[in-house]
Amino acid sequence: MKVNGVPVTPPDPDARLLDYLRDDLGLIGAKEGCGMGECGSCTVLMDGVPVCSCLVLVCQAEDADVTTVEGLRRTALQEAFVTGQAVQCGFCIAGMVVSASALLAEHPDPTDEQIRAGLEGNLCRCTGYGAIVRAVREAAR
Amino acid sequence: MPAEQAREIVVGTLEYVTDLRFPGMLHGAVTRSAIPHGRIVAIDTTKAAAMPGVRAVLIGADVPCNRLGPADVDGPVLADQRVRQVGEAIALVAAVDEGTARRAAEAVVVTVEPLPVVADPRTALSPEVPKLHEGGNLAGRIGFASGDVEAALAAADVVVERVVGTGAQEHVAIEPPGGVALWEAGQVTIWCGSQNPGLHRRKVARALNVEIDDVRLVAGPVGGAFGARNDDPMPVFLAVLAKAAGAPVHMRMTREEVMAAGPKRHPFHTTVRVGFTEDGDLAASDMTALADTGPYVTSGPNVLKTSAEMSVGPYRMPVARFDGRVVYTNNANAGAFRGYGVPQVAFALETAIDEAAARLGMDPVELRMRNLLRGGDRHGLYGHAVTPGLRAAETLAAAAADEWWVSRREWQRAARGPWRRGTGIAMAVKGVGLGSGRGDAARARLICDINGHVRIWAGPNHTGQAIDVAYRQIAADVLGMDPARITVTVGDSQLVPESGATAASRSMYAGGSAVAAVCERYKAALAEAGGPARLVELGRAEFEATFHLPDVADPGLIPPKRLGDHAPHLVYGCSAQVVRLEVHELTGEIRVAGVVCAVDCGRAINPGAVIGQAEGGVAQGLGFALMEEHRLDGGRPLTTSLENYLIPTARDVPEIRTLLVEGDEPTGPMGAKGMSEVVIVPTGPAVAAAVADAVGVRPARLPITPERLLEGLR
Ligand code: FES
Ligand code: FES
Hints:
The structure holds two protein chains of two kinds.
Chain A: E1 2-3, E2 6-7, H1 17-24, E3 43-46, E4 49-52, E5 65-67, H2 75-83, H3 93-106, H4 112-118, H5 130-140
Parallel strand pairs in A: 1-5
Antiparallel strand pairs in A: 1-2, 3-4, 3-5
Helix pairs in contact in A: 2-5
Chain B: H1 6-10, E1 26-32, E2 38-44, H2 46-50, E3 54-59, E4 82-83, E5 89-95, H3 98-107, E6 109-114, E7 138-145, H4 149-155, E8 158-166, E9 178-184, E10 187-192, H5 197-208, E11 215-218, H6 234-245, E12 249-252, H7 255-261, E13 268-276, E14 282-294, H8 300-310, E15 319-328, H9 342-360, H10 364-371, H11 392-400, H12 403-406, H13 408-413, E16 419-431, E17 441-448, E18 454-458, H14 467-479, E19 486-489, H15 507-529, H16 532-537, E20 542-548, H17 563-566, E21 572-584, E22 590-602, H18 607-626, E23 632-633, E24 636-637, E25 655-662, H19 683-695, E26 701-702, H20 706-713
Parallel strand pairs in B: 1-12, 8-26, 10-11, 14-15, 18-19, 22-25
Antiparallel strand pairs in B: 1-5, 2-4, 2-6, 3-5, 7-15, 8-13, 9-10, 9-12, 13-14, 16-21, 17-18, 17-20, 21-22, 23-24
């Protein structure tokens, strides 16, 4: 497994990927909001595809290239979240940014409908999503 | 202006309280009641304590003062004689890792003799129903009449009566409660999300029988609050467990624990009668409300105070009466939740006004407009004078001028297939601060250095609304300084002087005013001394100020001695909203197409943050209106996780047009006032009005689920 480009050897194949990232590797960007694939706050990329890391076991990601929010290089997107005031409590934001980066990789110029569909798996309780959708749109420019 | 921590958040490096790790740290877990009501016969911890890796197991008897609040009805820290709710905490475990702690918590054997369950608040006061507390099942009552309501209703030309209900809403802050506690030399530091660090400090000190100065609470960063971090027992759990284990303890609740044991918005059963003259002038209103607080009192009676005051909305009301009761049941414990008792009563009143408009053949905007309070008018129930800064009419006018309201008929006619279209409008008002007679105050401290760099410690705390940024903006404005040369710290009880809760729409108004006051002091001293270096030299570089929220100058009909019992407000904010939506006439499914949110916010100091609060409030209001309800059956929760308790996603929330109706609040800092709660209030009734416009049936219950709607259509 590679995490943010660095080869790693997880000690426990049955651990959840989320716990491995947070507890063993100290990558605390991915958060646990539900532990059952409902909130998206634990979203990371596995070979470029967003997944809920709370539902993935380390052994399922053995050969994968895992990217967490800490490993993203789309600064325009992150900057748009900041300047667009899309961050309130911020707990959902790492997952949002990861999902949005995958969305922009697939649709460099997404429609609002595509943005909302792409972020549907990421719950945010603070923003009502408006500023988040605007930030993604802004970053696509 | 962006939130202070936003840059760290977007790259994932900000440590939330649940992200903290300390050397030698243990992990905690809670043993919880599986049944809604029962007598505890025995608690056996021997098996749990013997498990490898377990460092401490605690029950109620181990807590020095096993009380969460000053009264018995506030509940114990750990249930020791009786359990009154599914999910109630009975034992705490600390172990070397989270898995071991949870397994040990499961291994605590609790023998309980089940007792009859009080599940229906409507019968909770009947004599044959078991008493949940010694004093019976009435947790509080508030009543007030400004005159002879029956006579006024009898004389009215049109009287509308509505019997409505609203459900228990769960906050669903995306971060479940948790944190870390660490004892050093008899003093404890607790990192735990809190909207009320002062209150939590007092709770911890009381439960552990230590001095309040020995308790430090660092209340963030926290992943959302919305009221849920006001009564949260988590800081007490952490402190108690870390003390017993003799090591730092980390703990976090699972989502399932939050769903069962976390506070909820009080479910209400409400009846309202509203009378009008044939010209559309309001003649009287009479409202009766029943609120379910669950097993413990928490915020119940205070919530009802706000319900009473807001039961007449932002309207002139010649005569009004409110009679509200809060009752104990074995349902989920209710607590503070954004809007604090107002969404429930506004749903009753606003839908009644719509019904009256239909009967009178009047436009709903025109009917409201002719009855709205204008700034400086007297309150519809209590008769006190309200701030001249109230902009109810301007707010309604702004919403009604939006193209989505103006062109609603054309939009309706363009409906296709089974999707029928409707548009609704509603209005709401909410007081800013705790209300008169409550001694509501906030404080700020300031220190300058020789170069004129200013550090400010102020409360209330930031729980997502970037209040610290607003404090910085206010300070920069008063001092005429670059905000970059000002540092603001919030949320640490050791550093920030006691400033009360991040609640009641008071943070901007109260905290902002305290910051403005401390800056004025500094400014005056600067002018006198001739510069910051001189102040430092003189040993006068430190300042403190307290801001007391003003009480109403003239309490109207409230006897002055009872001011705090009713806690009327001087300052109010209001919001008017337009909702357009589509209803599938065969399935009852509802798609919201757009919301206009006009908000009377005083001067918007940080407009981007105000818009964010408005959009977030509307989204939460849409959840309350259409999908969110914590359901129980005989005290047993049916909605147990985010799999069966759904909140709005990016696809459910439409475009929200926020219209800031700006204008100075004369008593507020830089003309600002609170607005983050009122924006959740009109959404429910506006959705109901839009549904009625689409399919001709006015919903009587929130949430308006497809099943309920189809039932009404049949
Ligand atoms: S924590 Fe993984 S989806 Fe919620
Ligand atoms: S910013 Fe708080 S959950 Fe999204």
